[in-house]
Structure formats: C-alpha cells, structure tokens
Specification:
Bound molecules: zinc ion
Strand order of the largest sheet: 1-2-3-4
Shape: globular
Keywords: Metal-binding, Signal, Zinc, Zinc-finger
Strand content: 15-25%
Helix content: 40-55%
Order of helices and strands: HHHHHHEEEEHH
GO molecular function: zinc ion binding
Number of domains: 2
Number of strands: 4
Distance between the termini: 58 Å
Structural class: alpha+beta
Length: 188
C-alpha cells in the first residue's frame, strides 16, 4: 500500500508522454524530475517559460563536455565528435534548433528546446528539456527521440552547444536563432 501510494505520488505529475514509458524508464524519468519538485517539464505550459535566456547561468564548454561524456552513448559521442572536428558545431546547433525557452524552478533552471529531427527531416520536431544548477552545471536532460531515453542525444547536444556558444559570445540566443537563416545559406 505504502509503495503504491509512493508510486502514485511520484508519477502524479508526469506528462502523458512520460506515463507511456516502460516502468524502469518511467522511474528513472520521475527521479530526474525531482530537481523540479517532481514536476515534469513536458507538462508545464509554454506560457510559463518566461525567463530571459540571458539570465541563465553561464554554460562553459567544460560543463557541456563533462555532461556529454558521461551521458551520451559511444555511438552518439562519435557523431558529436565528427561535428566538433568539422568545427561546425555552432552551425550544427543553430541550424537545427527551432526554439529555446527557460524557467526558474526552485534554485534550478529548466530549459526546453524544440529541435529538428536530424535523421528524418520530415518528421515532427523533437522536444528536449534539461536541468541546470544555479552555477551552470548541467544536471539532467531528456529528449523524446529514441536515443533521448538515454537522456542525451544529438538534439540535447545541439541545445547545449547553442547555450555554450551564447555564453561565449555574450550574444543572446535570439541573435543566434536569427543568424540561423544566414548560417543555412552558408552551409546548405
Ligand atoms: Zn534526441
């Protein structure tokens, strides 16, 4: 009874998407939302994501690299290295990202992103979320692509690269997204 109640409470705030995950994945997913008091970012209405992106903590390349090394599967790491080795990760990131929004929850930050499907151009965009600590550590992430169940994939990486780029350039994400059209012209 007690464990049933615990599960009911734990899964009570999950989005329809998360409720369809298999049991192990669902428990892991729910645990990753603990930082937000158990609120699933996918269940938060978009209108609540009102934090200006320049108020996010600074994301260093070290934080991004650490996160990706520990979270991303070796196959995806190879893919990301290929992009990085082309020194094209900035265009890679900004070319595919459709939107990034942020919200402060407790002492952490929730970032959501909409990213084009890299492998299947005509498929619906993918939705990612990530949690950041107040000092810019990347805590957890999720993407609704198949690889995203492993909690990091090229779509998460794209958003991280964009945030890292913005921190470096002291440019706003909006400027980067506006530059996307120019970048697409340069790298068709
Ligand atoms: Zn993904």
């Amino acid at each position: 009874m007690a464990s049933f109640l615990f599960i009911a409470i734990m899964f009570g705030n999950l989005s329809a998407y998360a409720r369809l995950l298999d049991n192990n994945e669902k428990q892991r997913y729910a645990a990753n939302t603990a930082i937000f008091g158990g609120i699933d970012p996918y269940s938060i209405e978009l209108k609540n994501f009102i934090l200006p992106l320049d108020e996010l903590p600074r994301i260093t390349s070290e934080a991004v690299t650490n996160f990706l090394i520990f979270r991303v599967s070796p196959a995806t790491q190879a893919e990301i290295r290929a992009y990085k080795s082309l020194d094209a990760f900035t265009q890679f990131a900004s070319k595919w990202i459709e939107d990034i929004k942020a919200l402060k929850i407790n002492n952490s930050f929730c970032v959501i992103g909409k990213v084009m499907h890299l492998q299947k151009i005509n498929s619906p965009s993918l939705n990612i979320w990530l949690s950041l600590s107040s000092n810019g550590d990347i805590l957890n992430s999720h993407c609704d692509c198949v690889a995203g169940l492993g909690e990091a994939c090229t779509h998460v990486a794209a958003v991280l690269f964009a945030l890292e780029y913005v921190s470096k350039q002291e440019e706003s994400v909006t400027d980067v997204l506006l530059d996307r059209a120019k970048i697409q012209e340069k790298f068709p």
